[in-house]
Amino acid sequence: MSGRLVVALMTKWCTLPTQPAAAPIPIHLSRPALLRPPPLYAPPRATRTIAMNTTNQDQDSLDALFKQKRILRSNVRKALKSMDPTLRSHEDNAIQNIVLEAPWFKSCQRLCAYISCSALREVDTSKLLSEILQSPLKEGDVQLRKKLYVPRVEDKNSHMRMLNISCIDDLVANSMNILEPAPVDSGGNEREDVMQASDPVDLLLLPGLAFDRSGRRLGRGGGYYDTFLTRYQELAKAHNWKQPLLVALSYSTQILDEGVIPITPHDVLVDALVSPAGVIPISPAAFDRMKL
Ligand SMILES: Nc1nc2c(c(=O)[nH]1)N(C=O)[C@@H](CNc1ccc(C(=O)N[C@@H](CCC(=O)O)C(=O)O)cc1)CN2
Ligand SMILES: Nc1ncnc2c1ncn2[C@@H]1O[C@H](COP(=O)(O)OP(=O)(O)OP(=O)(O)O)[C@@H](O)[C@H]1O
User: Which chain positions lie within coiled-coil regions (predicted)?
Assistant: First the structure.
């Protein structure tokens, strides 16, 4: 791997991986249930963008990195498949209860959340979603219910929108068997796209296959979330809005040792994790807003 690319592969508040990203990656699943102290915040290092005239060597390094991601995904999928169902259900409840009780969740007014898919062994969000959608709309003039946006895949070019729903019946299964909203509601009205909304979301609850304590997130490989998050962060910047808090929900077994998840400059780091053992704040924004 060229020196230029090694520098380019570092992002925001990450320190350098302890091993080169292209080295063969042993999978170290971290100790479950134990909450180690969060890593100290490391200021961003200067990052250079990948040169436009990417050399064959750089492309080979990228290919090796994506190959490592595929191997890692496959190992984590196996670990998730072999997870004891009772433990899974215990962890699903613990994670959702932590979120429901958290001040940063209680105070949030608008959020994006994923609709969990049990076949993908994702952390369950059904309790969170039903609590949100069952809460009273208003008290007098005061808006009580959080505004909820959920993903809808538009095409295979990593294009996903976040559309507003107000009822769980607004969802239908897509070709991947994930529930998502139709673009038009039962009254024939276009659903609001979060990218067109006049007010910002404060929070995003993210799925993923694996995470680490420096904020790295391994998705399912479609690039949907990284593309969406980058666009939303740009929108928030253009409007001078506060950036939303990016919080990933993770079973214990999905938190990997630091440096194991390879990243490129396109991968967006999360601000915090919620595991059954508690909230793991990572970024300065998380320490500030989660008041831990
Ligand atoms: N609940 C949920 N909704 C979501 C996502 C998600 O990860 N979870 N997405 C996040 O992007 C988008 C959909 N992207 C997806 C990408 C891959 C697969 C999937 O079934 N992957 C299989 C492997 C398929 C293969 O490799 O051929 C798997 O991971 O087991 C599903 C959704 C939008 N909605
Ligand atoms: N060898 C490669 N060189 C360049 N791009 C690649 C290569 N292999 C895959 N990609 C592309 O990189 C994109 C993102 O992959 P990445 O591994 O970052 O996804 P992810 O973070 O797991 O997904 P998501 O953001 O949806 O959670 C995909 O659109 C994929 O087509």
Answer: none
